[in-house]
Amino acid sequence: MGFTDRYIASIGSSNLMDDALHHQTDPLAAAALAGDIGALLCRVKYADGTLIRMFEGNQQNLAQLLRIWTVEVIKRGQMRRWVPENTAWDAQSAQALYRRVAEKSLAHWLDSTCKGCSGTGVKALLGNGICASCKGTGTAAIHGTAGLELERVKDMVSELSAIADSHSGRASGLLRGGDR
Fold first, then answer.
1. FRET partner for 164 with CA separation of 20 to 30 A, picked from 39, 87, 149, 153?
2. Where are the alpha helices (DSSP H) in the chain?
3. Contact predicate 77/94, CB 8 Å
4. pLDDT digits over 61-82, tens only?
5. Closest residue by Cα to residue 73 from 39, 35, 104, 110
């Protein structure tokens, strides 16, 4: 069982005790101690109902994550010189691009499951063919973008995945007993 599975299981813990016999909430503590934006990514994606949709999540966490991610995308976009910012109009259009990329990349990372096959990669009705929407991957395509913007959104989705993977690795290390 990976860290993500343990984290999701701990969210629904019926016992919040922390003694010699009860360790159900250890993944929650490890995620918090691992720190950085990864903890907030984990909380929004797995704890606030984004994936399971059983309840209305904490909207403040999502709003905070979007603000932090937008600042990070702007910083990365400027550092990587995605678009020139020579004039006021260029700077204004660059800011609009950064914000669209931040919003679309975060939205896709939070829920990239193909709606046509519910992430199985198989046709929903027949069950014996590859889903035409996702071509069998189970991951939805990024809609509403093309060209430069699409490439930047894909780049930022992979950055979010790397941040989340790094956070999960640090949290798993804490669960194994390192640096506690």
1. 149
2. 3-11, 26-34, 36-42, 59-80, 88-110, 147-175
3. yes
4. 788 889 999 999 999 999 998 9
5. 104
